[in-house]
Amino acid sequence: MEFKSVGGIYDALKGVVKEKEGAIEIADEGALRGGGLDAVVYNAVFNSNTEIKNEARRVITEAAKAVGIPSVSIQGLYEAMGRGECAGFTVPAINIRALTYDTARAVFSAAMKNGAGAFIFEIAKSEIGYTDQRPSEYTACVLAAALKEGWRGPVFIQGDHFQINAKKYVQDDEKEVGSLKTLIKEAIEGGFLNIDIDASTIVDLSKPTVTEQQRPNFEVTAALTEYIRGLEPEGITVSIGGEIGEVGGKNSTEEELRAFMDGYLAILGGRMKGISKISIQTGTSHGGVVLPDGSMAKVKVDFDTIERLSNVSREVYGLSGVVQHGASTLPDDAFDIFPKRGTAEVHLATGFQNIQYESPAMPGGLKKEVYSYLKEKFSDELKEGITEEQFIYKTRKKGIGPFKEQFWNIPEESRSHIGRELEERFDLLFKKLNAVNTRQYIKKWVS
What we know:
Blueprint: H1 7-12, E1 17-20, E2 23-26, H2 35-46, H3 50-66, E3 71-72, H4 75-82, E4 91-95, H5 100-113, E5 120-124, H6 125-130, H7 135-149, E6 155-163, H8 166-171, H9 173-189, E7 194-198, H10 210-231, E8 239-243, H11 254-268, E9 277-280, H12 303-315, E10 322-324, H13 337-340, E11 345-348, H14 350-358, H15 364-377, H16 388-395, H17 404-408, H18 412-432, H19 439-445
């Protein structure tokens, strides 16, 4: 399947696309959904030749633009939500770690069934590392999935948890911020026009006042906001998120929200647009809490805090509302509460990874190979008091990158079965979050 030259891309799409003076033109829009696209996206991910890989990504991105599937910012919608002109639903932000092309296809298929337009594809800084997916690759997979499923309209791709490492920040703050700037630049150039900054890791609770505790957070977030504004493509306002409470820590308060926002806005001084949403901590943790037998612990989400802080963020600061992280492993009856309490956006990740690993269609041999690798590679994490089930659950995300091509190449029948399982889950989430029939809002508020 690996192309030996750039010409292989155009051979696979012969009669479908053509290049004219550096631009991609669509000769047969209907044929874009054919098998040639599968081969091109495979090479966009796995081709050993960097030139061929990059050209495959460019062809996919430009073909998507040509048929009306651009990667854009969700800023306009979130500004409308902040003005109170658009409400009643929560935007799902979906982290895809494995089988990215197939999973994104399932998202688009479920979205079309539900008339959904307001949903986000995202990948966190940490996930980029352990899943071995750079921004331009992730964008190519998502846009190829949109082409394959016949999607038309904007696509929202987001850098999730672009996070400051607290230990590295203490050692050399300029170097750590600089490394995040490098990632932000790569992400924007790779088609990520929505960026979530997470400097909540450097909140200093030893300080005597809430403002001083939040100061490192709002100062770094303001500096990175200015950096992003300087990189924006012409005519685009990147949607930026901030965060006041690290997920897994203590629940956020209104005082913290106000201290962060007042300090942050004072630094910006009205010179540029600020963040469009703010992430808070309400009792969840990334991936959920796994019990010794491998089952999930029940988590109580503080919906009162969500509602109170969402109201303050909108009414006082014009934000779209608050963002809930670590939600994919919550019980199903929790999801319809989010829109009722004014949650702007909810981030969902581990639950989809769990479906993929635990599907009866996942080849047992591959899963066994991944788990053996984890036990050997990360044996130091199998500490006393931790069961093997807990160890596997917590570490199996780290097997995705090393086995990425093996996951991609599982039999077509197995991938289709997993895709159907995922689509059922996305369908349920769109409905629970009331994120149905939102294409009308995208058409009105997103340019």
